[in-house]
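Design request, tokens follow.
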């Protein structure tokens, strides 16, 4: 079955790159989309490609291998890449929720608040903060001597490697919970607060305003719920005994946050966001027209 699994995997990998690249290309090429919301969507697409590269390249190599393995250095690099991908995703989703909150709750001040320099600063923080935190996190893991070499997952994650250590891991365990609090719970709380405020303001607005707010927020809300659930299951899978579940279910749960968000986010935003959809259709139509003219 290896060849079948490899074919399916590489198709998913290529589709992820294609749909995310289309979103990035459309937003970069269309100056009308150089607004905070679309810049954050573009960042989400870039992160989707980053996360898929962190997982799929080594995964496809192992599918074709009779003895799937990874070097110690390669394992730590994959841990760092996959964990930062997850943190970047939460931070960008939180920024998108904040942007929607400002847009709906303070529309007259939106341009004064979400200035280009402010957007740049927020994105820099969204990337640099997780990088700094995870550098400490991975440093605590690298120092551990390992007494085992088998990981019951299809990729390296920090907790699976920490459990292979033959020394006290209480520091790693405590820092892991701290990390989850600052990089997962905090962005989720900001997102939830933003939507509570949006709902509160929208409930007092006109029916047309409520409809517009719903259309604007729905794609982000779908993305946020999808990713939160996927990450929640992955943490349960890591921290608690999931052996009662069938093996195939455990495998899918462990890769859900790496598989579905990069695949579905561009589709959700491409279909549900009117300006992106219209811009993409216009861009491909112009490319098709140019191709026809060149042939003649």
């Amino acid at each position: 079955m290896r060849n079948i699994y490899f074919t399916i995997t590489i198709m998913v990998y290529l589709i992820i790159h294609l749909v995310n690249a289309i979103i990035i290309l459309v937003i970069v090429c269309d100056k009308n989309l150089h607004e905070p919301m679309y810049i954050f969507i573009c960042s989400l697409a870039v992160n989707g490609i980053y996360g898929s590269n962190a997982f799929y390249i080594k995964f496809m190599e192992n599918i074709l291998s009779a003895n799937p393995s990874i070097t110690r250095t390669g394992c730590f690099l994959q841990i760092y890449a996959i964990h930062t991908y997850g943190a970047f995703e939460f931070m960008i989703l939180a920024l998108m929720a904040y942007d929607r909150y400002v847009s709906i709750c303070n529309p007259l001040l939106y341009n004064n608040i979400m200035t280009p320099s402010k957007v740049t600063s927020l994105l820099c923080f969204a990337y640099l903060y997780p990088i700094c935190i995870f550098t400490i996190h991975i440093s605590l893991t690298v120092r551990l001597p390992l007494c085992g070499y088998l990981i019951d997952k299809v990729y390296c994650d920090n907790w699976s490697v920490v459990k292979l250590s033959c020394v006290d891991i209480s520091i790693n365990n405590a820092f892991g919970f701290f990390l989850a609090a600052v990089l997962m719970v905090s962005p989720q709380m900001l997102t939830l607060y933003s939507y509570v405020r949006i709902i509160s303001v929208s409930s007092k607005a006109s029916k047309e305003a409520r409809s517009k707010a719903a259309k604007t927020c729905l794609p982000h809300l779908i993305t946020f719920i999808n990713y939160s659930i996927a990450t929640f299951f992955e943490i349960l899978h890591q921290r608690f005994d999931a052996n009662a579940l069938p093996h195939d279910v455990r495998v899918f749960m462990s890769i859900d946050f790496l598989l579905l968000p990069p695949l579905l986010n561009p589709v959700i935003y491409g279909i549900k966001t009117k300006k992106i959809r219209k811009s993409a259709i216009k861009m491909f139509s112009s490319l098709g027209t140019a191709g026809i003219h060149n042939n003649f």
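Comment from the thread starter after seeing the answer: thanks! The chain has a mean pLDDT of 86.
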